[in-house]
Amino acid sequence: MVEQRRYLSARGGEWAFAIVGLPCALLGGGYALAALYAGALLSLTVVGLPFVVVALLGARRLGALHRWLVGRLLGEYVEAPARLPRPAGVYARGRVVLTDPVAWRALLYLVLRLPLGVLGFAIAVALPLGCGWLASFPLWIRLGGGARPATWLDAVSVVLGLVVLSAVPGAIRALNGANRRLARLLLGPARAQQRVRELETARATLLADNTDQLRRLERDLHDGTQARLVALAITLSLAEDALAPPSGPDLGRLRTLMNRARGQTDDAITELRRLTRGIHPVALDGGLGEALPGLTATSPVPVTIRLDLAERPHQVVERVVYFCAAELLTNIAKHSGARSAELTVSAADDRVRLSVRDDGRGGAALGAGTGLTGLAERLAAVDGVLRVDSPPGGPTMVVAELPARLR
């Protein structure tokens, strides 16, 4: 019923885009076709290449206008492409424009947007007017020709007009879905540029995380392990004093000091193990097959684990998968209210897939403050992706997929 109501309705922005988009589509399509036609005619002349350069710059600007319209009226945010570099020299700048994939894709968008714009205006304006005329056809025919008996054609025209009119909002929604996909495909940054941005963001995130980890490690070593070792050194010094007093060794005091030193040594070793575990878990030396069961055993929520590791991934990939699993299990324990969870890891065909499912309250999402955004950024650094499916009321399924080998 909800899907039916959604089909039978369209937002105001979608209607506005279908109507206001027509002049923009005519302007952009006419510009693109004229630029392509004139560029082909002038290609063998001196002004051919300069004309194409100017036309491509204009296509970029018109693409920005359409990107704004799609975001404003359809609610579809399309990331703006990077600005063109400005090398020294006219010829170098012209070469940059001519080889700019964003400008050529914007030109293609303007050509394809033209028929979509005309079709959208026809559906939003012409089709409802035609349906109104068809539904009121029996009335018009009687106003023009006097009294006339009702026929089955009158009933068909009314029903047909109302049926087609009820389908108009669904057609608007479907057409604007095509407009959204077209804008995402052609008005955003080129795939290579987008990949560079993702890697730069992931690298900055990893550098910041590594810096924070190093500072935290330095603080823990200074405030924890170093203090324990200093206390141990003091205890051993006191024990040395107890061995050679003027009246002979004080065995009782010496035994107490040695017991204290043994306890301080154990505490220092435990502290060092805790710190090194955060750098590289010792369990990973045997691979994910040995590390993950130990990780799930420490979870306060019962976890069923399923492993299908036909091949061993790269060590860096193993470390990313391990810490993703640890973060997701921590999220389940802290935020989900789940009674049970399931962790599945498979490695085959040079891909590693980690999925964690719980029966908690749901509602998890990227950017919702549960660490999922940080996980997505870490996965992006190794060309991985994170998908979250967590409807309110649960269950929650988080899937991380990444290559088994780093290239």
TrEMBL record:
UniProt-listed InterPro entries? HATPase_C_sf, HATPase_dom, Put_sensor_dom, Sensor_HK_TwoCompSys, Sig_transdc_His_kin_sub3_dim/P
- Name under which the protein is recorded: histidine kinase
Q: So where does this one cross the membrane?
A: 12-34, 40-59, 114-135, 155-175
Q: Give GO MF terms, alphabetically.
A: kinase activity
Q: Does the keyword Nucleotide-binding apply?
A: yes
Q: What class of enzyme is it?
A: transferase
Answer whether the UniProt record assigns the keyword Membrane to this protein. Answer: yes
Q: Which residues does the UniProt record annotate as the domain Histidine kinase/HSP90-like ATPase? A: 316-406
Q: What is its EC number?
A: 2.7.13.3
Alphabetized, the UniProt keywords read: ATP-binding, Kinase, Membrane, Nucleotide-binding, Phosphoprotein, Transferase, Transmembrane, Transmembrane helix, Two-component regulatory system
**Reaction(s) the record says it catalyses:** ATP + protein L-histidine = ADP + protein N-phospho-L-histidine
